[in-house]
Give the backbone structure.
Amino acid sequence: MSAPEVNNSLKEASLETLRSILSANQEVRKAGESQVQALEVTEGFGIYLTEIILDVKYQLPIRQLATVLLKQYIDCHWWKLCEEKFRPPETLPEAKSLIRDLLPRALSDSNSKIRSGAAHAISAIAQWDWPEEWPTLFTTLMMYLTQGSQDSLQGSMCVLLEITHNVDDKQMPQVVPVILPEVYKIFSDSTRYSVRMRSQAIQIFTNLTEAVCSAGEYNKGLVKELLGPSLLPFTEALVKHLQEPDGPTSDVGLKTSIVKALTVLVKHVPKQLSQWLLQILPTVWNTLTHSAHVYVACVVNETEESDEQVDLDGEVISFENLVSSIFEFVHALVETPRFRSAVRDGISQIIYYIILFMQITEEQVATWTASPDRFVEDESEDSFSYSVRLAAQDVLLALRQEFEDEACSGLCEAVTRHLQEAEVMHTQGSNNFWWKVVEASLLSLGVVKDLLESQQKENQLPLDIVVILQSSLDQHNRMAASPFLLGRCLWAASRFANFLPATLLNRYIQATVEALQPHQNVILRITAVRAVWGFCEHLKESQNTAMLTPMLPMITESLLNLAILFSHEVLSLVLETLAMVLAVDKNFTATCESKVCPLTIALFLKHNSDPVIVELAQDIFRELSQNEACLGPLQHRLVPTLVSILQSPPDKVPSGLHGVALDVVETLVRASKPPLSDALMQTFPCAVRSALTSDDPTIVQNGGECLRAFVSVSPDQVAAYRDSEGHTGLYFIIQVVLNLLNPTVNESSSAFVGRLVSTLFNRAGSHLGDSVDLILRGVLSKLQGSSSLVAAQSLIMVYAHLIHAQMEAVLDFLSSVPGPKGQSALHFVLHQWCSRQHVFSGAYETKVSSIALAKLLHHGVTMNDSRITEITITIEDDSALTDGDGCIRTRSQRGALQYRVKEISILVKILKLLIYELSNCLESAMAFADDDDENDTDGEQSVEGMRENAGALLSSQLLDDEDKLDDLKDDDPDAQHDPNSVINLQQYLTEFLRSFSSQSYFPSGFLPHLNSQEKQVLNLIGIHQL
């Protein structure tokens, strides 16, 4: 068979495959899908698909399917360096060239779906080939744009819309000045071009503006050069067309594109845009107010129908997209110092409309009523779902963050107005949806609870929340209002429990208990669960749990009933609240353990693959463990189950259950006081066996952490433990440690072995004898082959802890053991430590490591310890970052440099690291200070201002607190018990560096090696004359 015949045969096979995929017969369709996989590895498959797309003799569905398959083919076979999707073979250069020549013709096809499909395929190719391998593409697109038919114009616009996302700084000078005038013509001519095409023109302008402004961060003249000629006419046109009412020349989609374009201009060119502010803001506000009324009528209450529009790909243009774009515009104004005052001046009106957008829609009412899990998920503070309701809350929080006093007064005005209007609507019977705005108003108050509380304490709150909640309880119960509103009243009362007088608080708690009962609406019951959590939290903090105690039996019974009925999201909420209830009164908790514990164990086993429910079950186990009256019964019920799981072969239990069981054992051990019960000690050999014999990284890691808990809580019991052969508990833990330190063991399994070693040394060091040397050699060996930062940090921390506890001993050991390259192990460890310190994670680990380095530096210098002073390290020469005049080079200038390196003492390197850690502390401290001065329109801070801020922070009460400037408290119990955890790192480093810099050896031995940035940090803490 000749080559042309083979090609024709393959093309016919491709056509037949397309017909099969479109078949109504499932078997034929599956066969066709399988045949595609065979055809796509042939040389001409992409060409055949392109030819089919272009040939109008084939039916439209065949051609459309060909565009889809061609796009998939390009994604998988076009470029072998596309690691994410590439499957061999790569398309041959000859085939690529032919496809690039043929495919643009489809952009002028009479069918919009063919044009759109071809545009997507062309854009996918352009991502790799344009402009180097496809220099004619842009010329072709511009020809279609300026000289072609309406069809080819639309096709080229589709491609430009996609490829302008990825224009780089080399292409910009050739592309931007050519495209922008043309898309401006299209956008501004509403008589010749359709709304959809004009909307695309705005999107192309937006894409290019963002690209140019991003590049302009490193090339200051680029924005003015490329965007300058277009900004004025485009801004005028954007404002003009945003004012147009919906009709043939304007709709929701066009307005959405306009608002997005204005948002980009606000963010990136505020200075140029400021002259237009007086024209832009009224227009956007009018759009906001009009959108609010349309949204309430068409989406919230569904009393009117909106005209659905579709884009060029046939997708429905959602009205919610316009609302979201307006919210993003408000965010941009708030984040831009130059425009914040405009938001502040109209904040009451803005919040009024934000609350309208926070109302529950009819669709949400139906969805949440049918799916309580969805209700919990969507209304959670940590929800990943998107809705206009949640987006409106985000805007309110942004306003609260930026304008505290104004946001508070504006919110109070808006809520008062809404409640008055709702009362009128309800009284007149003119609107059955009056309750929605009341619910949204209560929600808005709860969202900014902390702000209202602070204003209340200062007697500056212009709203009587007690009166609102009093009337809500009386009126809405009497009116049998929506369960969504009744539930929101309970939730709001729990949020503001500290505002309520005792009588009203007690009434609300009673109402909440009543709302939990089985005969109530499920939405009301779930919201009452949230309210229970809030009331418990407040009454515990205020040490006034007596009010709640009589209600606890009914509350607990109701929560247990809900836990049986529901799963997933609702169950998670119930378990979280149950753990809070159990912490209220230990005497009551002891009476209900017999009900709570069996159910929690059953749920733990049933949902063992759900990490959220497992963690919440552990919270309940932990709470019961901390109650002496519950500890024995809990262990009696739970430990046999855990032992049974851990003793079972992995293939006999659900996947992952072994690891979860070890996690629960750790929880029980950590929550217990020594001596551990006999029942709990039965789990010890099970944990050892799991850690030693499993090849599952999760089981091995959890087993190690579980054993660390045993050593930490009751090291004497572990030392006294004996198996039938006389081996001690410490013997087994040492075996686990040595196994985890084995270089052949996967690093993911041994990521936290350093924690186990440190705890073992700290809590049971006196029992270890010669094993200490063996373990430390294992740590060295593991560190040598470690590639993971987490694992390396864990191992380095072993030596950091030892320097705190036994500096001389660890220096003696490391100096006497050879390292991997012939130098001492001390040389190796310090090199590893100093090269990774700056990327360590965790506030506690960073603190312990930094203080250890400071002690090591002090020891090395004051004792002139040659074991340390003779070690050097290679670093980048800082002088390579400056030019001949001492000025810092730009990023582009640095890219052309061949960096120089130099050798310095390891002690100098340690000093540099300590200064670096101090700079991080100062940066964190400044984040706690006041926000940027609004008068500083560029959002930058002078060095002098930094110095003043740093000085204020260093002398403030912040340094007297328990490390407020650390990232977060460490969750690890061993870390919490370490005296180092309460040291304020900023204060420690400040005092250390001040003292160190005053010594005689500093000016000659260290100062010459510091760069200008490091000297500036020292200057910030009062070390001058550098």
